[in-house]
Amino acid sequence: MLISPLAKKLCTAKGIDPATLRGSGPRGRIMAADVVEPSLARQKRGGTTMADFSTPPTRPEKDGYYVYDGAVNMQALADISLPIAVQCEKLLENRYSLFDYIVRAVVKACCTCPSWQDAGGKTDVLLFENEGRSQCCISDAAKKTIFRIARETANPIPPVADFSPHIIICDTHTSREQVAAALKADKRPGFALVVRGNSSKVGIRAGRDHIEKVELAYTFYAATTISPTEANLIAAHLQALLYNPVRLLLLN
């Protein structure tokens, strides 16, 4: 039986028999995500894949967007992101934050249904951080690894006047006015994710031990210019990707 060291550690801590799990990693290897959220991944010989599923909107359409509310267990997210964090620490001499992890998940989820992309196939992202006081542009984000994203958020490039992002992602405490203005811009983004809550949670270093057990709530917006079927698939893939660090390491 193939099992990653972190998955083995989690099984021991949770009292789970690894033999009862189905691995989503290469050659059926049991990964940490399979221990934390076994229903979010299924085994496929020769590689990692996710089941086809969809998530319906949780609220009525608003201002031309489908609206999805979700939540992520922060302790679980920090645990399963540890393998990526270790590699990032080697490359950047610092661990990325969970916000970088979320950014990568949002970009990858949106690109699972690429019909909304323009002819150039670019995916430009605008980030609101530090309670909305700072902004960071990530151009062509779909072609960048989580390590590159972490490097760019650590040295943010502010948006120029004509920058029109396809995706906006807002950290905690970004004001409603800023979010509303971004969603109602002349060239509106196709997607937006707003991290909700009253405390700064996503700045936590990935892989940190003893994080207070807390759920990270978010709201995901998908423009009604794409079909509801595709929007529902993207919302479901986002939730699954947040618990699957192996998928986030891959560009494709």
Explain the overall architecture.
Residues 41-51 have low confidence and may be disordered. Strands 3-4-9-8-7-5-6 form a seven-stranded mixed sheet, with helices on both faces. The protein has a two-stranded antiparallel ribbon with strand order 1-2. With 252 residues, the chain is an alpha+beta fold. α5 crosses α6 (146-154) and α5 (98-110) runs antiparallel to α8. The protein has nine helices and nine strands. It has helices at 5-14, 32-36, 74-80, 82-92, 98-110, 146-154, 176-183, 228-241, 245-249, and strands spanning 42-44, 47-49, 59-62, 65-73, 125-129, 134-138, 167-170, 191-195, 215-223. A hairpin with a 2-residue loop joins β1 and β2. The two termini are 27 Å apart. It folds into two domains: 1-51, Dihydrolipoamide Transferase; 55-249, Chloramphenicol acetyltransferase-like domain (Chloramphenicol Acetyltransferase).
Which short descriptors sum up this protein?
252 residues, alpha+beta, Dihydrolipoamide Transferase, Chloramphenicol Acetyltransferase, 33% helix, globular
SSE blueprint and pairings:
Layout lengths: L4 H10 L17 H5 L5 E3 L2 E3 L9 E4 L2 E9 H7 L1 H11 L5 H13 L14 E5 L4 E5 L7 H9 L12 E4 L5 H8 L7 E5 L19 E9 L4 H14 L3 H5 L3
Parallel strand pairs: 5-7, 7-8
Antiparallel strand pairs: 1-2, 3-4, 4-9, 5-6, 8-9
Helix pairs in contact: 5-6, 5-8
Concise overview:
By secondary structure, the chain is of the alpha+beta class. The protein contains nine helices and nine strands. The protein folds into two domains: 1-51, Dihydrolipoamide Transferase (Irregular); 55-249, 2-Layer Sandwich (Chloramphenicol Acetyltransferase), CATH 3.30.559.
